[in-house]
Design a protein that fits this description.
This protein is an alpha/beta fold. It contains ten helices and twelve strands. The longest helix has 21 residues.
Length: 327
């Protein structure tokens, strides 16, 4: 039997939204997986032997790897551990297929780097749900900011696009920390990270305090570095900006040493390496409003926020600028 079962003779990963790889000597399993989703949503590449599969896996990593516990050339668990030992691939969700419930008693899950398991006999409905959850978990984990754990760029764009397409009247607030680089340079990345975490918690708390008119319109994301976004209904976002600025200004002096706090700033270097005095950190917030569903796509909101942010940063101290064109 050929190493590669190739359950899809016209296999073309570019034609499907997500790509799975299954390694098993059980043709019934590969046939069942092919029937779970339309080929344009999830396509499966099937292998019987681990050795041949690993060559392909390292060259073209799938979105999800499903491994039978018993393979002709090595155990499924050994293969899973080999994949997870590679830093580049350890975020890939790996699902182990077990022979039945009796296999669970002999397994130490704390020592196994797998993300999900399936049991024989198979229930197609259960398998579809478990695999969908594994893919969703992996997507959230990859997108989350490693420091704040807030959703990252992919989730932010998806949320904004969803609201635009729904015609929702929302406000997208783009938040940037002023003078963070000089603070980070003087006090080090550890204290810089504490300032970023404080900002993340503050945004989450303020957004949470506003009454939920619709869950999708209450959102906080971390773009990266010292840039954040939050989304609220258009009628709530300006009050939230006021609260965010006031609370940030009240808290941020405590992040500085007493001498710097008394002086109202620090002596550090600018991006050209020149010594310069910098005031305490503050916030610049640019708010894009989607009144009357004027936005057409997420990219439009992002470019408008970038332009408004320049206006906010030109104002001394914590400030916010509302998009007047949307009123």
């Amino acid at each position: 039997m050929a190493d590669m079962l190739d359950t899809s003779p016209a296999f073309d990963p570019s034609c499907c939204r997500q790509r799975g790889m299954v390694i098993t000597a059980d043709p019934a399993l590969t046939a069942m997986l092919d029937a779970l989703w339309p080929a344009q949503d999830v396509c499966w590449q099937a292998f019987e032997r681990a050795s041949r599969a690993m060559e392909e896996l390292y060259a073209e990593p799938p979105d999800l790897l499903l491994v039978d516990e018993c393979l002709p050339d090595m155990s499924g668990l050994e293969l899973a551990m080999a994949v997870k030992s590679e830093n580049v691939y350890r975020q890939m969700p790996v699902v182990l297929v077990l022979r039945g419930p009796e296999a669970l008693d002999s397994l130490d899950w704390s020592a196994m780097e797998v993300d999900e398991f399936l049991l024989r006999p198979f229930s197609p409905v259960e398998i579809r749900s478990r695999l969908a959850l594994a893919l969703a978990r992996a997507t959230r984990t990859l997108d989350a900011n490693p420091l704040s754990k807030l959703p990252g760029n992919t989730s932010i764009i998806q949320r904004v696009q969803h609201l635009v397409e729904a015609g929702a009247e929302f406000g997208l607030a783009y938040v940037d920390l002023d003078n963070f680089k000089s603070f980070n340079d003087k006090y080090g990345f550890s204290r810089g990270d504490e300032a970023l975490m404080m900002t993340a918690r503050l945004l989450v708390n303020v957004v949470r305090e506003h009454p939920q008119q619709a869950p999708a319109m209450h959102f906080v994301g971390h773009v990266g570095g010292d840039d954040f976004v939050f989304i609220l209904p258009a009628t709530q976002v300006e009050a939230a900006c006021r609260a965010v600025c006031a609370r940030f200004d009240a808290i941020v002096p405590s992040f500085y040493d007493e001498d710097d706090r008394r002086r109202g700033g620090i002596r550090s270097t600018d991006r050209q390496g020149n010594a310069q005095d910098f005031p305490l950190m503050s916030l610049s917030i640019a708010v894009v409003l989607n009144h009357n569903a004027k936005l057409t796509h997420a990219g439009e909101a992002a470019s408008m926020a970038a332009a408004l942010k320049k206006k906010a940063k030109a104002i001394s101290g914590s400030s916010y600028v509302m998009d007047q064109r949307q009123r």
